[in-house]
Amino acid sequence: RLRFTDVDASVLKLVDEAEHEVEQAASISSSRQIRFENYGSSWIKRVAKVSPDAFTQLALQLTYYRIHKEFAPVYETASTRQFLHGRTETVRSLSSEAADFMQAMNDAASSSADKYEAIARASAKHQALLREASAGQGIDRHIFGLRMAYHRLAPLPDETPISDEERHAIEEFFGDAVLAKSATFHLSTSGLFPAYYLTHTGFGCVVRERGYGINYIIEEGKIKFGIEGKTKEAGNGTDVDLFESTLRQ
User: Fold this and answer.
1) Residues 25, 231 contacting (CB under 8 angstroms)
2) Which of 2, 16, 214, 229 is surrounded by the fewest CB atoms within 10 Å?
3) Which residues form the Choline/carnitine acyltransferase domain (predicted)?
4) Which are the contacts of 218, defined by CB distance < 8 A and separation ≥ 6?
């Protein structure tokens, strides 16, 4: 236990402000812990014959699509720890193949075979994206590094300053509407290694309106989810209760 002495009024004021901010954040937050016990990785690999992580990601995307009637830009954590000081990269899990899968699942004319072929293709694409991100072939950390370098680093002594034409091109790139929309991750997700001793996990949403933060643990016989979003009012349609029931379906 840390014991503080001679704490002045300014510090106490900051503590009070922080407490108020936490209370405000909690008051508009809605979260659920879901234990899906119908099956887990064993059935997904043995019967479905697809990647358990891809299967779970596609289930989350389909859930969002059915609730909000649109595709969600998806962030999934990829580990880059094979590199020195490596930490994470973004798997952009919303692919064209994933979109095809969601549309097939919602198409009354699609047969069971059509739907299975769609999930198999989407799973294969997802695994390829995950491998690329883990190998340092993602885009988000590179773009983040470029943005930080542009805004915060001064030219080196023998380096030619950025020209107005170059500055315009850089600003145009970082201000691109498609780039901004694609990085507005309505589904912010992270899979954890199987951990039977972990009952619940938490991961906050990064987009307030119709955004969800989701941790999941895929075990042999169950899948555990921790889901956080804002209340319906604060989240302009975010619905964690409906997300749970739709995900189970």
Assistant:
1) no
2) 2
3) 3-248
4) 40, 41, 44, 52, 53, 56, 191, 194
Structure tokens at 249: 């379906």
Which helix (H) or strand (E) element contains residue 227? Answer: strand 223-230
User: How far is it, in rounded angstroms, from Cα 221 to Cα 43?
Assistant: 8
Segment holding 225, helix H or strand E: strand 223-230
Task: Count other C-beta atoms under 10 Å from residue 179's C-beta.
Answer: 13
Contact 238, 231 (CB under 8 A): yes
Outline where 36-139 has alpha helix (H). Answer: 41-43, 52-68, 96-105, 112-134
Comparing CA positions, the residue from 118, 51, 31 lying closest to residue 91 is: 51
- Do 119 and 55 contact (CB within 8 A), yes or no? yes
pLDDT digits (tens, 9 = 90+) for 79-138: 999 999 999 999 999 999 999 999 999 999 999 999 999 999 999 999 999 999 999 999
Cα–Cα distances in Å, from 182 out to 75, 205, 231?
10, 16, 24
pTM: 0.90
For residue range 198-223, list pLDDT tens digits in order.
877 888 999 999 999 999 999 999 99
Q: Which of 151, 162, 140 is nearest to 78 (CA)?
A: 140
- Both tokens assigned to 118: 């769609």
Strands 29-36 and 74-79: unpaired
